[in-house]
Amino acid sequence: MSFNISLSGLNAASSDLDVTSDNISNSATVGFKGSRAEFADVFASSQLGVASNAIGQGVRLQNVAQQFTQGQFDFTGNSLDLGVNGEGFFRMSDEEGAVSYTRNGAFQLDNEGQIVNADGLQLTGYPADDDGNIGGETGPLQVNTGNVPPRATDEIDVNANLQSSAEPPEADFDVDDPESYNFSTATTVYDTQGGSHTANFFFSKMDPDDDAIDGIDGGENTWAVNLEVGGVVDGPRYLNFGTDGSFDSVTDGDGDAADGPYQFAADDIDALAGADDLDIDVDYSSMTQFGTPSAVSELRQNGFEAGEFSSLEVEEDGTIFGRYTNGESRALGQVALARFPSEQNLTEIGDNLWVESAESGEPIIGEPGTSSLGGIQGGALEQSNVDITEQLVNMITAQRNFQANAQMISTQDQVTQEILNIR
Question: What is the distance between the alpha carbons of residues 415 and 82, in angstroms, rounded to a whole number?
């Protein structure tokens, strides 16, 4: 009987060495999670139960448990090298739709622009439409590396202060005469073909006695604004401010107040060269009239020229942005992560992949940073969580256990030999 007990000890020590060897051999494997051997003692029992003076029957390997602790990050600078900082797995899919999960975030683009790993499995997430709107259904993520088309400017927001103590200019407004206005600023706008045009704003403090503002509330708190693009001048419009310097209203030359942003429409700009006419809503509602010098805080328009694909960037929430040479960025999709009620009961299938099992429970899929899921670390890979020093100590311990059980067998053999030599 003691031979069998010691033999179980040899098998257990050998299994412990096998697990340690596997950990050490994968110490440089990206996203690898080390395992530990868990053992249980063995007792013989009968229908009458275990006797109070029963001797154990050895040991057995009870479980090989993976340890899903966080690994260190190795920063690579490759935008499609992704690491999970916290709980969660990347969700992968093959061409037949079979789903697996991994912590290895070494991804690349295939010839169709799909984000895949070294084995060609597709990274899944929430794809975005052509306007950068991210949907709620999961699917393979694909990156469009083509050019981004131009967008015509149709909105301008002006956020500026006009100095309340400014004196009305004496000369009538003239684009070419700086003495005919108090303050000017400019921005670039774009037509439907991506052509750029300079939009110049000219602000003139109004004389309260000027007949032009008869019937316009504001009086000495009124400014005229003229907008010029490509030689076409729109204006004047009249900006009216309250006594506290806050914006009140914008009116046209007849004293009619605009219900919303004022529209600038120009159809005589020669530089449009076949593009559609400019049709821009200009919003002055963020402007103020304070005693500080006239200055622009923000002058924002929503158009841009055509741009070529430049690079990718992945944010902490998993959103994948395409960067373009025109300075624009567009959301191309969002990485999805999955977690399980019992991740240690996932079934390992090799190649750093796990699949769902009955014991692991069904996956909870969501956006990184939500539902207890970790965030995404772009440009970095999660290294193996194996501690080499710890594994070497485990190796020595398992070796000693193996030697001790082998010595026990040798001792039992000597005892048996002594018995056989009795005459």
Answer: 61
Report whether 133 contacts 259 (CB < 8 A): no
Enumerate the β-bridge partners of residue 312.
322
Tokens coding 415: 């005892």
The closest of 387, 386, 390, 415 to 30, measured between CA atoms, is: 386
What is the spatial distance between Cα 251 and Cα 240, in angstroms, rounded to a whole number? 8
In the Cβ-directed half-sphere of 100, how many Cα atoms lie within 13 Å?
A: 21
Q: Does the structure show a pLDDT above 60 at 217? A: no
pLDDT in tens, 12-48: 889 999 999 999 999 999 999 999 999 998 877 655 6
Q: Which amino acid is at 50?
A: V
Considering only CA atoms, which of 10, 24, 59 is closest in space to residue 38? 59
Residue 212 is encoded by which pair of tokens? 């032009």
Cα 83 from Cα 375, distance rounded (Å): 8
Strands, E, within 162-243: which ranges?
183-190, 196-205, 222-229, 232-241
Element containing residue 393 per DSSP (H, E): helix 388-420
* H/E stretch holding 62: strand 58-66
Q: How far apart are CA 143 and CA 27, in angstroms?
A: 32
Q: What is the CATH number of domain 155-301?
A: 2.60.98.20
Rounded to 5 degrees, what angle do the CA atoms 95, 368, 350 make?
45
Cis peptide before 341 (omega within 30 of 0): no
Q: Kindly report, as residue ranges, where domains of CATH 2.60.98.20 are found in the chain.
A: 155-301
Question: In DSSP terms, which residues pair with 109 in a beta bridge?
Answer: 115
Environment class of 55 (CB within 10 Å of its CB; exposed 0-12, middle 13-18, buried 19+): exposed
pLDDT of residue 205: 94
Compute the distance between CA of residue 149 and CA of residue 213 in angstroms, rounded to an integer. 43
Q: Which of 102, 104, 55, 96 is nearest to 76 (CA)?
A: 104
pTM score above 0.90: no
CA angle 92, 80, 72 (to 5 degrees): 85
Length of the chain as a residue count: 423
- Chain centroid to CA 411: how far? 63
Looking at residue 271, its pLDDT comes to 61
Which tens digit of pLDDT belongs to each residue from 252-290?
766 666 655 656 665 556 666 678 888 888 999 999 999
Q: Which residue has the tokens 């960067």?
A: 323
Least Cα distance to 374 among 384, 364, 383 occurs for 364
DSSP secondary structure, 174-186, as one string: -TT-GGG-SEEEE
